[in-house]
Amino acid sequence: MSEERNVTVLVAVQAPEEEAAAVTVLGAQSQVTVARRLAELTELLAAAEAGAGTVAVVSGDLPGLDRDAVARLRGAGLRVVVVQDAALSAARLAWLGADVVVAGGDAENLVAAVRGDGPDPAAPVVPAPADRGSDRPGAIVAVWGPAGSPGRTTTAIELAAALAGVGAAAPRRTGLLRRSRPVPPPHGSSTVLLADADTYASSVTSRLGLLDDAPGLAAAARAAGQGNLDVVTLAGHSPVVLPGVRVLTGITRASRWPELPASSLDLVFQRCRELAAWTVVDCGPVLEADELLMYDTRAPQRNGATLSALQAADVVVVVGAADPVGLQRLVRGLEDLRDAAVPVPAARVVVVNRVRAAAVGRRAEAQVRDALARYGGVGDAHVVPDDPAGLDAALLAGRVLAECAPASPARAAFEALADRVRELVPAPV
Ligand SMILES: Nc1ncnc2c1ncn2[C@@H]1O[C@H](COP(=O)(O)OP(=O)(O)OP(=O)(O)O)[C@@H](O)[C@H]1O
Ligand SMILES: [Mg+2]
């Protein structure tokens, strides 16, 4: 038995007889107070955020209850006890991310759950989902870099193509495309999922010549928030656009960023590991969590998508531009990454992009390596040459370098980057 604590309960249970039973049972316990009975999720959230309770007892089928709502309740400091209706699937309840799920009508376990005594192992209780990392067939590579367009999207796209083994002659496939020429993926290649999580200036859609359609990543996030994101659904939102490469397209307008909440994306990235050997995420440039908003647990965070990807990542590719301003931002960016609002435990690969003598002087590569070693403590930067001919051709055609400029020096550098990523995280499947 745990020590007795004062517990204040907010009850938002749908069925009137179940609500009455819960209130009666809980009200009879010492040091348990039923503070409020609430009919709707919005009232529950408001009460929770006003500090009116320490535990929420909530029906699994309360309208609007999703993973994000449970995360908000927990963010407001409440234990979340979900009362399970027999008609709801255990999987959906587990996806909600509650602290504990108790079968409706099971008074004994309800009391134990509210007190935080832990469930009776014999009881029909659905465990909350395991933390990220318990089941990782695929790897996540977050491509991040400071502001100033250093080449995050270019790196993410080319890295995805290289990891998938897209060859020079590889034509592309499917529905979202303006130009489609169906062909199977190269033999022996890995499946790669390219996700556009830039909430400031998403560009994967136009860079790959895709139709500006419904954003796949937002649709996947929505499904995840509702507890409905299985691998089949995720695959439905991520069409194959190159042999072996699926794409979760980004938001079509920057103002749609609230459609990519971190609590849902955490689940999306977890599912991505089941769908693809590699998930490459194009992140936005800004890392701050808005501290004022952190007190308002209802407010989504603008940079939540980037932080979610960085936290989930097995490898973080940090991209900086090879000019005096870009290198300075890169050094500061590496510091920012160390101090990010979430832990980012992944291995880092620093990429310096568009290396050219015109911007840093003679022996450009050596200059860049020197500067990074001296000011950023980075001794093993990966260098990508400036290649306007190759990248402009790719931009114009909406293709990757392997398709339209196979001999490009930048392509060779991105292929070498893929090798380096493979060394850090051996091929997962
Ligand atoms: N190695 C390179 N050589 C020549 N041009 C490049 C190279 N890498 C990227 N570019 C070009 O630089 C521009 C910016 O690249 P990109 O869109 O990848 O940057 P970003 O960091 O994603 O920018 P944003 O801030 O818009 O997200 C693009 O026009 C791209 O084609
Ligand atoms: Mg970009």
Number of strands: 14
Give the ligands present: adenosine-5'-triphosphate, magnesium ion
Mean pLDDT, as a whole number? 85
Coarse structural class? alpha/beta
| Number of discrete domains | 2
Tell me what the CATH architecture of the largest domain is: 3-Layer(aba) Sandwich
The N- to C-terminal Cα distance equals: 44 Å
Instruction: List unreliable stretches of 5+ residues.
Output: 119-136, 168-175, 177-189
Structure write-up:
The structure is a single chain. It contains 18 helices and 14 strands. It is an alpha/beta fold and 429 residues long. The protein folds into 2 domains: 7-127, Response regulator (Rossmann fold, 3-Layer(aba) Sandwich); 139-424, Rossmann fold (3-Layer(aba) Sandwich). The strands form 2 sheets. It has an 8-stranded mixed sheet, with helices on both faces. A 6-stranded mixed sheet has the order 2-1-3-4-5-6, sandwiched between helices. Helix 1 (16-27) links the parallel strand 1 and strand 2 (32-37). The radius of gyration is 24 Å and the shape is elongated. Bound molecules: adenosine-5'-triphosphate (ATP) and magnesium ion. Adenosine-5'-triphosphate binds next to helix 6, strand 13 and helix 16. Residues 145, 149-154, 198, 201, 203, 353-354, 384, 386-388, 391, 395, 410 line the site of adenosine-5'-triphosphate.
